[in-house]
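Form P-L/3: holo structure prediction, ligand nicotinamide-adenine-dinucleotide.
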Amino acid sequence: MADKSVWLVTGATSGIGAAVVREVRKRYPEAHVLALDINDTAGADLVAETGADYLHCDVSSLDDWENVVVHLESIGAPTHVHLNAGIQIAPPDAPLSEYTFEAATLENLEKMMGVNVNGVVYGLRALLPLMQSGSAIVVTASLAGVAPYATDPLYAMSKHAVVGLVRSLGGPLDKRGILINALCPGGVATNIIPDEQKTDEAVFMTPEALADEAIWLMGADENGRTWAKVAEDKPVFVVRAPGDKGGRHSRE
Ligand code: NAD
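OUTPUT (holo model):
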């Protein structure tokens, strides 16, 4: 029987998102993979490389999400949704002094919250009405969603927000048979890393290692939980909210 699964990945043309697209295309060649991003040039390259479908979608734009819903009419309901797009408060080539709470501009704050928080909310509002029992959502949060990140406190705030959303939606979505979990990576070698943090001593995980965990989480049969990934050779483990006593401790 043909694989009717429809994967949708935001922030899909670089880093963790691109690794998920590549791996899903490899593992499930029959699945439809819809890659969403704002970098259309990289999107065209990803389509040529993997055969994935690509659509321009700024996750902070309600209009763009409406276009996604229209696009899905001819494809089918998403079965695996990875809400992954994210940015820090300043661009990677900015000095770390521009990432501080004091230096952040209101314009950058609005942009970052638009991507990291509204982007997840808008994505869920657009896609949840389409999603059926048996489908799954992974939201890329960050270790900065469960622990302090002094370099970029406002980014940490935005990632704590999505962790709170995922934890709170676990129960209600469980009643619909839909899984939602948050993936919280430590440092990963991608374009989001500030140039100043790319020192010889810094150790980063590969985006492929996170893609493997994200794909596993789609079928983990756990709900509303927060999964940290701190080292390449250690599996994701649960960062428990107070009162969360059940379920697995880790992938192993
Ligand atoms: P990345 O910069 O390589 O990829 C981010 C992607 O998001 C890019 O393709 C970019 O074009 C896209 N994007 C940016 N703004 C967008 C928007 N408005 N709409 C749609 N797409 C947009 O970085 P990454 O590390 O792969 O980031 C993926 C996720 O992982 C982010 O949510 C990030 O916060 C999170 N994360 C990364 C790390 C790390 O160390 N790399 C650690 C923890 C969490």
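COMMENT: DSSP finds six helices and eight strands in the chain.
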